Amino acid sequence: AKKLGRNRWQFYHGAMNEETRERLRIEGALRNALERGEFVLHYQPQVDLASGHIVGMEALLRWRHPELGVVPPQRFIGLAEETGLIVPIGAWVLRTACAQARAWNTMREADGLAPLRVAVNLSARQFAQPDLVASIAAVLDGTGLPAACLDLELTESLFVDDVAQAVDLLHALKALGVALSIDDFGTGYSSFSYLRTFPIDVLKIDRSFVADIASDADEAAIVVSIIALARNLKLRVIAEGVESTAQLDFLRAHGCDEMQGYHFSRPVPAEEFERMIRSGHAC
Ligand code: C2E
Ligand code: CA
Ligand code: CA
Ligand code: CA
Question: Which residues cross the membrane (predicted)?
Answer without folding.
Answer: none
